[in-house]
Here is the input.
Amino acid sequence: MADETIDSSVIDRSGREFFLTKASRAGGPVTCVAFSPSKPSTQPKYDDNYFFFVAQGPYLTRYKNRGATDDVDIDVGANINVGATNNPQQLLVFTENGGQQRGGGSIHGIHFPENVTSKAKAGKTFTPWDSIVYGGKRLAFCSLLGGGGCNDGSTSNSKIERRDVILSEATAKTEINRNSLSPTSPFLELGDWIWNVKTFSVDDNDTDSTNKMKTTMVVGYARHMLEVWNVEESITDIEVGHNECINDSIEPSRRTAILSTCLRRFFLSPSTVVTSMDFIFVKQQNQHDTISTQGDHNENDTLWIASEEEKEQCNNRMDLTSSSSPTPKKYLLEGHVGVVHCVRWFNDGGVISLASTSDDRSVRKWVWDITQQYWVEKWVGWGHSARVWSVAMVNPASPNEQHSTPSDLTSTSSSSAPSPSLPVLVSVAEDGTARVWSTESGETMACIHHSTTLRTVDTRSTIDGGMMVIGTTDGISAMYDVYNHISGENRFEVPIPDDRPQEIIDKPSSDDIESVVTSITHAEGEEQNVDKLQTKKKKKKKKKKIQSQVILGMKCWCDVTKSSTPQVIVATRQGTLMSLNIDTQDWHILGPWWEKYIGERHGIQASDGCCMAVHDTMCAVAIGTTRGDIVLTSFQKSKDTNSTILKARGLRGVQGLSFIDSTCLVSFHVQSVALWNMDFENVTNTAEVEPNIVLKLETKGIPLSCAYDRVNHRVVVGDSRGNIVYFNTKDIDHMKGGLIEPISRIPRVHQKQHVMSIKWLNTDTIISAGNDGCIHISYLDGDFFRKGWSYPAPSMNGITAITHSSGPIIVAGYYGNVFRMLDTRSGCELFRADTGGRQRILDYRVNTRNNILAGIPLGYQLAVCKGLKDGSNNLFVQHSSIHPRRDEANGVKLHVETIFDSTFFTLTNQEIVFLVTVSEDCNSRISAWRKGRIIDSVLLTPQESCCRCVAISKVDEKSVVLVVGGGKLTLQFFLVKERSNFGIINSTRDLDITFIGNGSTWKKGATIDHRINAVSAIPLLGGEHRSHLVVAGDSDGGSHIFLVTEDGSDGCKNIRSLLVPTMSERPILCIETLAIGNRILIMMGSTGGDIAIFDLPASLSQLEDFCEGSNWWYPIGGYKGHQMGTNTICSQILSMEITKNRMNATVSIVTGGDDQALCISRLSLEQIDDCDTRLKLVRDADINVIPEASFSAIKGVSVVNFRDQKYLLAVGYSQQLSAWRFHNKDDMSLQCKSRVSVDLGDINSLSVYQPSDKSTCFVAVCGMGVEMFQQVAALSMVETLRYGHTGISSLSLYFQLGNMKNFDIFD
Here is the structure.
């Protein structure tokens, strides 16, 4: 569980009150990333055992690099991915403070002091803080590394914690008067936005006698102000009375706390608001204004400050140790033409330099000019196409090559060429790229692409290179090896040996002849002849056709069974096989794949070759021909052994070849596919061999890809028209004329585009990828092949291959002419290459680590064939270094933009809860959660415009109908259920998701300004096809009703639209449906604050008959609940009575609006008469409005139950989640019992999950991410041990639903 604080203001003394506590957070932008500090050079063995930290809002998650040998114990598992090898810990750094109901703010900086270490006193070891975490106006002291900052790796399994802060008496009075804070706090809340924090040690000879560790802290603020603080470690005794404890064994404890004193405050010049600040400490002698390389007692601490205003930089310098007020020296650095977002000091080979980034898309380096005694611009780096957010420095060389010296403003460097051994700058930008810059020349040395905006970066120097970690706006943090990205990707271009006849090679072209004639004529100086020649030039002569060298196939190959050198195998139409050694760049002729006897005996010519496939062990090379036959040769054969001919009688030309496994070759022919099963490593038969299986496609497309399940005798084939065809090779009844006909097919899965790759995810799930840039999931129910759903790969126009599918799905394809490979889960790009054209022959090979979460490759080779004008060819090769990459990605990807709506659902496994979210980024996602922690998420089919609303409906736990509405009046319908052959669902990968179709509204010509604002769904009674009613409302006030069936067989349509004859006068914002007996009550809220009530039959047959009449869609009543828009609505049945076919019911409706009010209404309904089952209002609605229930618009309300008591949860733009209790005797009365802050921006929805037994409750608040809350009940002793007692650093005392859950006092 996260380090969570229970606010005493929401605790009931009886221990029976309901309230919520924060559980975790997922999604939303990463606001800060940081590495743990580098280890001392004397301990190189621990250098690869480090942490990196990722902040999202006030939550901080610690990850351990996967190169480490030991695992991290789970403290709380936010953003834990299935199969992760580094279990993260999450800490809620900024919690509620002193009963103040406000958000904790976002972390945007972490500082690790160098001098904070464990100290022993009186035989005991105290664990001090080792880091400072700051964000907004808050600053916290934390223990993040374990062992109080000891970098020896010995306590890496310790939990991460936050330390209490004790203000000194003088400082406390000042701070209390200004911010109304208590003297003891979980963090410091200061008077201005914090931009940076740095520390330096203070020698105190009395430290051992006072039990204190002293550190000087400098804090920089947005108002161009600095504060100097003294921070001391103190020991405090905490006593707990036995009569107040649950366990009498609890003894008084000694705990550490942070005593903080503000020493001085001074303002810098000019007096303005700055957008970034950084400072660095240097040592200077009193007598000289120079930097000393060695410290002595005459040195003073001098602070260099770099702060940035909108378009300029200010560089200040001051002496902090002076007894008088420091007078800073100011240097104004001009150059940027936009808002400056980041400034960073860095040590550039012993020289203090400054880097800056800006809105003007540039990165700039500033150096000290000793002659001018001023800061000058060294270079400007261009390359980013959007604003640049952050920059950091890293030395990618190993520590043995690094020669770090103290900072020196006067030293210079003579080298100007980029070198991996020199420090480099890494910048991240809104265009989704991270660029590596040479600090000497400003040249771009590497560029790493991502699918979303990159906001923050941090770097770390390691033994074998530098690492960088970046944070994205979709919640992903990615770590990259800088050295490998600079020097690890090698590119070269070599000519392919020309095996054409010599007379063709030596024959000059017409261009060569013309150039020779022209030069001779000019040498003779004959003007008349020149005129004639110029006249002849105007006549376009038909150039003689050049007989080019034709490359029929190319394969990147490496023997996986041995430690061999990667090679590129090339086959030509001259009958030659050759290989290129990638390391030495040398060509080797392997031998001919075609010889004369092949033409004499079988009628196959070398010019018939059209494609090639290479066995993994190089024991066989298959050459396909335009005749339909295949030439099978081997480099291990003796000179006397001939090639084997695979004779495909009656089949047309070979379109492609592929080795499915070591004993199966698949050949793709026009409208057919042949499977050849044999032992390719021991092919001795030189006679003609016929295929074992021939599949007849029966589509108009050409087969391009195949997935073969040999165990279950099943084959799935994709063609050039977007079709996927399923075959069962075991049933001989499908054999006709020697061909196996398909059992079923799915047409146009990839929009009439080529299906380039197909793989089996499991025994009944198929994944395919095509030139439409989408990934599609299909399912097999026995022998029935059905369509699932599809989603696009990030930033890809076309996908050529699915490289990895057992864990994360990794695909390769094109974005324009750029060939790239990426992880679809995280959006991280693994490599890219500009091929110069999508039609060029290309092949690649990649080796992935199955145990790596993101599937980052160890190495890869990419080869592209480039044709030249003279008919020859060049081979472009790009490959990674032999050093293994250490790139990885962490977190669960959700949405890039604001989440507008969300809803929960469960299936048979109640431990896994699924949350459906829809966002402004046009995407909808299903995420799996366990105990309030996210497991993974899956992307559904996106919409053309934004997604605004979502609803679910389910008859039972077997399946769920999911409806997504959005822009252009679009409605999408999905069916989600468990896979038939799966026992227990553990993640979204175990779901069977089927896209049913789009809902067609009665409005035509909808634009992006027309949108579905609200949708609700409810199951119908009766019927054989499990039907559901879906009601939607749009931005024009129109209503749309659909009947959706889960089973579309027997001629029954899945989606039927019903014509609604009337419209609302105002746009519809929210819809609620409620089943009351055999009727359905529909409530709609509009922008005018009105709530309209409708009544429909709950039976499918009655509903179909009812909708055939006129004026069937007409409200039975309504009322005005708000002065402004009704944003959210929920309802519950208070009572229902059915006697002699008559029904009476009382319904409670709660709404939240833009007027910051809650409206509770009570409706009394009854059946019209014995013959007419329609409902009517007995009287006008009883209304109770609670004004100012929130500080801002209310966006979500929901009713929950706890111990036979009903509560109302409400949330809105005020970033507060409030719990209101209904009065036991008056259901129109509410009392606010608790409020808890929500650390999200742009809150738009509230979703609540409670099982039928009400045993637990999870609440998801959605906006710029998802924050999960958990229902807990307080212990009576918590008020006694309330948070805020001096010395208590963190307290988690709670149990769930009255049962003891845990009792932890974290040390």
Observations:
- The mean pLDDT is 78.
- The first strand starts at residue 18 and ends at 26.
- The helical segments are 169-179, 207-210, 482-488, 502-506, 510-524, 527-538, 596-602, 1100-1106.
